[in-house]
Every structure is written in structure tokens, then in C-alpha cells.
Design a protein that fits this description.
It contains four helices and three strands, in the order βββαααα. With 143 residues, the protein is of the alpha+beta class. InterPro entries: Znf_CCHC, Znf_PMZ, Znf_SWIM.
Length: 143
Amino acid sequence: MEPQRAVSVYEGAIRYIVCLERKTCSCGRFQHDEIPCAHAMTVLKKKSIKGVHPYSSDYYKHDALTNTYALPIEPMPDKYDWIAPESILEVVLPPRYEKMPGRPRKKRKKNPDEKITTNTNCCGQCGKEGHNRRTCTFFPKDS
């Protein structure tokens, strides 16, 4: 078998680098799930590799699944028959948080040297401050 190197796979404008030898992909799914991601499957298809089993973790194989359930699983006893320590049985109350009335305060506090700005009216007709279009006396209204 020839040594495998990293292969680039493009999904739209995004480039992913897949290395089948190390079982890695730059998207991270191949390493995390330990099963070939979509980019690794594309590389396997390009190389005409039929089986994905050598590139999958042993946890996904049939033997691992049957070994998981080989031991018998005992059902839980009734809740009143449980043997539990007192620290677990005590009732945990929610925190005593009271919502304050009114609108919540802004989280950001301004610095003392920060300039305080106030909004002043600006007329849409003459462009001067202190009044608006309705109360403008610069242009007479046609009645």
C-alpha cells in the first residue's frame, strides 16, 4: 500500500485538509467522532476505497456493540429501597433571588472623563438646532 498524504477537499470556498493515515480532518469531526466525516468520505471515494471500517473506531464495530450488552443489566430496585446518604436526600432550595422592580440598570458605567451627550432637536427645513420642522418660523407656512 502506498503511503498516504494529506489531501485538500473544497466545500464551497472553504478548504479542508484530510489525512487518512492519521485519521484527521481540519474540520475536526474525523478526530472527534472517530468516524470518517463528509470530507474524509470524499477522499475515500476519490481513491476508490470501498470499506470505511479501517478508518472507523473499534467502538462502532459490531463486536464492540455485542460486548457492551454481554453482561446482564440488573433493573433498579424501588425508590423506597434505595440506600442513599443523608447529604443526597436533603432538599435543595432555589437561591433567594428577588427581582428588583423597574427597568434593569445599564451594565456599562461611563468613565468620569467621558463626554455626556444630549440630543437636541434639529429642524428638517432650515437645519438649525433648538426646534423642529413643525415649529420652524424661518420659512412661512402657506395657508
